[in-house]
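TOKENISED FOLD:
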Amino acid sequence: MFTIRVQHDDFDLSAEQALVRARHRDVGAITSFVGVVRDINDGRDISTMTLEHYPSMTETALKKIVDDAARRWNVIDATVIHRVGELAPRDQIVLVLVASRHRGHAFEACEFIMDFLKTDAPFWKKEVTQDGAKWVDARATDDDARQRWEVK
């Protein structure tokens, strides 16, 4: 069972982990990644970040990423929650949880999901700093992280 949500509201890491544990008896590991809005980007203080998306397109992309991870590793359960709308520095922005029988599968699948989310999920970020509002460009480091998972 995989949970994919794109929402304005914050999420509760402990509650989401408890849901995963309650659904399965054979889980040996749950890994999690929580991304937060930075205070500073490229040397500029961030006052707010706004995330936009195309709803059905975004959920479809996230589901494909999680399905791809499940094909590569023994994923029993996964949760991806991504927030949209206006966020402040230090707000939680994304949660990735992966449950597996063994920690190695959970760690790798969690990292894979996050790397592909950064490059393949259609989100657009606009940061507001002392210099005004600016759309955030994709980072080469995100492309490099994703590329290491490519099957040759």
